[in-house]
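Reader question, answered in our methods column.
A reader sent in the components of a multi-part assembly and asked whether the whole thing could be modeled at once rather than chain by chain. We filled in our standard form and ran it. Here is what they sent:
COMPLEX SIZE: two components
ENTRIES:
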Amino acid sequence: MPIIQVKKLKKKYGEFEAVRGIDFEVDEGEVFGLLGPNGAGKTTTVEILEGLIKSTSGEAFIDDLDVSKDTKSVKKIIGVQLQSVNFFEKLSLFEIVELFSTLYSYTVDPGKILERVGLSNKKDSYFKTLSGGQKQRLSIAVALVNNPKVLFFDEPTTGLDPQARRNLWELIKSFQEEGKTVVLTTHYMEEAEELCDRVAIIDEGKIIKINSPSNLIDELTKSGFKSSKKMREATLEDVFIDLTGKSLRED
Amino acid sequence: MKIYLSFTIAASKMFFRRKSSIFWSLFFPVVTMLVFGNANILGYSAPNVGLIDYANTDNSRLITESLKQSKSTEIQLILSENEAIELLTKGSIASYITINSSYNNSESEIIITTRKDDFAEKEVVSNLINSVMLENKNSLEELSNIKSNIADINYQGYKGFIIPGIAAMAIMQNGIFSVVFTLLSYKNQGVLRRLQATPISPSHFIVGHLISRVTIIILQTFLLLIMGVFILGVSIGQGSIMAWINILLLSLLGGVLFLSIGLAISSLAPSEDSAPALANLVTFPMLFLSGVFFPIDFLPKFVGYVSNVLPLTHLAQGIRLSALYGNSTLTTLPQIGITILWLAIAFSICAFTFKWE
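And here is the structure of the entire assembly that came back:
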């Protein structure tokens, strides 16, 4: 039963077509990845689904609600983490989460939400004192205030160190275990492989392929592809984590 | 409703936690007021001299006409003592000359009435009258005595003038700049965009912000006036509660007015970074042309016409009338009316041009 349906979605900015008619569906409880190089149209697609921009043509539904018509109802059931957002200065993390929860008329315990994303010890700090990974985790905390059915993460791990990235992966996996649907954009392939049930590969505003990461790899190897790099039992990142430890380097 | 309240509380917390906002909107106007209030600049009132001609004889008319020719002062004909006292209290004249009905008799006399301690004005006016009499020596049968008199008025001097002026200036500065800079920083930081991803419209946030700022502006106005009372020893409102209520009303209206002008500036600015420059362009002339630091009567006539159009002129005038002379809402209706008119103009500009991003 798909919770997200996208049909022939297009977005034009003047002459430039950012999204050129894409179709896909996401099942409830799935972690769905939108992969593609910078400027491929990932963010535009996600922002149409989030109700931030209007599509030029085509349709999109979340939980059977039309994104362009029932935008407000859609916003109530989704949680959003945007690329490069700063939050209010001079408000503590606790106050930021509390403020956002009132916007959904939702009564939540901001302390619990901050604990969920590992920011309990920072609840009285201001946003600008946070490290990159902590900022992303606050952004995710704010996305959780309305107990959303669908979560959108737009390049959540860009610019983070390996420890912070793996920490965020664990967090995203925990949402899947809870049964939430997650839509994730990224240009890190190992991240997609680690987290996503299925991925859509987008380039120049079009979906080239949709499948699970392992099927996509199988397809390629069956066609006779041989990696020029010899596969080893571990990667350099594994070495790095082994040497520097798994714990986060930010307090 | 709860959302507006949350935003109002959040905006107020952010205001009081930011040192620069406290400095510019509370500390800075207070210091300006204390500096100017203690400078006690004399003779700030208009170079106008009133004239009451009770005698109305050939001689008195001759003197009146000659006085009118004088280039150093502007003679304003007045019909009664009461009117003269009123004008003197308001500062539209610096002194007045009374030619008594007994003029032409041997004990004829001319009286100069000035404010307490205004010796300079007394000297200037009596020299003027002497020179006029000497000029007309041939036509006048005799030279009159010049007597001086001190008006029995509660005149507060420059302090009394500057305090309401600074209060009005602070309303303008706080109103315009708090909106322009807040919107600029939230747009740049993407905060407004993040709010757009929630089910509420960012207008809730803007309205919450405005409510918080209007409250702060009212507090700021009363802080300035109360400091004026206790530190500069000025009496505000002449003991009339209606005057204080009118000041509350004016700071509320003025606050909303200048906040909307700030919003209008943010929407009209061609690029985001040009908004603060545009805000300066709007506020700077008003600092000097709106009777904040000196009466607009001091300005050349054609500049005075411009002054009379500016919104700050009327806000400052309204607050000053209540603070110095205890005027109530009913007696400051013209000032309130013009403030509301400007409010309507600023509101319509916002309504047509405001962009969320």
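What stands out: The domain at 2-244 of chain A is CATH 3.40.50.300 (Rossmann fold). The mean pLDDT of chain A is 90.
Send us your own complexes using the same form.
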